[in-house]
Write a structure and sequence with these properties.
about 300 residues, 11 strands, about 30% helix
Length: about 300
Amino acid sequence: MPTRGKSINLYLMDGTANGRIKCTLANWTGVAYKIPRTEIDNCKERHDLKQSGVYFLFGISDQTGDNVVYIGQAGARKNGEGILYRLQEHKRNPEKDYWTEAVVFTTSNNSFGPTEISYLENRFCKLATEAKRYLVKNGNDPTLGNITEEKESEMEEFVDYAKIIMGTFGHKVFEPLVGSSPTPVIDPPTIDKEPKLYLSTTKANAIGRRTNEGFVVFKGSTVSAVPTKSCPETISRLRKQHAERVSSEGMLLEDTLFGSPSAAAGFVTYSSANGLTMWATENGKTLKELEGEDESEQSSQI
């Protein structure tokens, strides 16, 4: 059964794409906000931001240039302050000066209690850590809390919707580099049809796959240790950028995403490389040949 589409309502609160955005989905009581740090103080009149909820602080590490995220929860207080108050606290905290944007999840009917927000914080932290897209800045693992199986099922549905919205907001914090499809709420997941591709030389042996973001080289691949004399500067920079992901024996320690098959091939071989001809299936069909088949198939459907 093909995956059905989803209708998402995005409201540009400031009339611009880089301002505050409110997001809702049909038949869902959740509400999400994307708020630039500079616009936090302009949200004081938003009643639903004074409720309980879970929030994400997104930024970039000054030391490494990596994407970072902090995930927290906020309970509604007797003085009427909730999520917004916590965001304002983080804005004043000099130890959290790295973040530039917040994403908030709450509900339209103020239905989140301590159990719900603790569960969601735990699940979101686990998903973000497993995806390895962002450096998760949480110092301690949040507790899962005591939750009934009925409430757990309800919260997992909320998580599924949150994954869709987070991707819509431009943050792939929950999405592994490979092995996943867009998270369906109703339909079963689709099977990734992209074949594994192989690159083998006397000094390297790698496996990878095309994705809708570029090309991923899999953990466990071995890469050339020494650059060729004609190695481009762009490839040298890639090797330096991902140096911590390569062991002293030349083994790739994590799945690694590249912008193109040629960049991936150049990284593996430490040289100038044509990824379309160097990556091939187990049966020897090159990526160039595969893409030719894709074009032929699309033409026949027109």
